[in-house]
Design goal:
This protein has about 140 residues and is an alpha/beta fold. The protein contains five helices and five strands; from the N terminus they run βαβαβαβαβα. About 35% of the residues lie in helices and about 15% in strands. The chain starts with about 25 loop residues before the first strand and ends with a helix.
């Protein structure tokens, strides 16, 4: 009687999961319905962090530095202008691109935004225009 020996060859499969790189955007807006709308506009293409005022946003920036911030101006606790000024006082956060998204369009506010080197988009804005602006900022 012949004995047949089989050799077991161990086959291992390596699966490499590559997560597509996504930029992170911090959205700051005290109107929850607008905040959720902004989240909907950006969540497919970007990692999104939400904050309902400038103080919460500042705390979130300390936890995880975003690639871009989009913020309303008029908010309780810490306004968008105050939030941007606070970021500008820290060399680690002063370089984060910043977009003011607001219905405010007076010359005094425009001067402050220019001084703070922020971008300004006036509400209402078409989602496609907002997405295009964000892409142009992140790609540059």
């Amino acid at each position: 009687m012949k004995l047949l020996f089989a050799r077991l060859i161990k086959i291992t499969w390596s699966v490499i999961v590559v997560e597509q790189f996504k930029y992170t955007i911090l959205l700051v807006e005290d109107d929850v319905s607008i905040l959720k709308l902004l989240e909907f506009i950006f969540k497919k293409e970007y990692n999104v962090i939400l904050a309902e005022n400038g103080q919460i946003a500042y705390e979130k920036v300390q936890e995880r530095k975003p690639d871009l911030i989009i913020s309303d101006i008029m908010m309780p606790v810490l306004t968008g202008i105050e939030f941007k000024e606070k970021l500008d006082n820290d060399s680690n956060t002063s370089v984060i691109p910043f977009v003011f998204l607001s219905a405010i369009d007076d010359s005094n506010t425009k001067e402050k935004i220019i001084k703070l080197k922020g971008n300004h988009i006036i509400k209402p804005v078409k989602p496609s225009d907002l997405r295009d602006k964000v892409k142009s900022i992140l790609v540059d």
